Amino acid sequence: MKIDLHTHSTYSDGTDKPSELINKALAAGITIIGLTDHDSIGGWQEAIDSLRPGISLVPGAEISCQTTDGISVHILGLLFDSSNSELMNTLEKTRENRHGRMEKIIARINEAGIDITMNDVLAQLSDGATLGRPHLADALVKKGVVASRDEAFTQMLHNNSKYYVSHYSPTPEAAIALIKAAGGVSVIAHPMASHRGRTISLETFGSLIDSGLDGIEVDHRDHSPDEKKQLIALASGSNLVMTGASDYHGNGKLNSLGEYTTNPDEWDRLESRANARRVITV
Question: Does domain 99-157 have CATH number 3.30.70.3290?
Answer without folding.
Answer: no
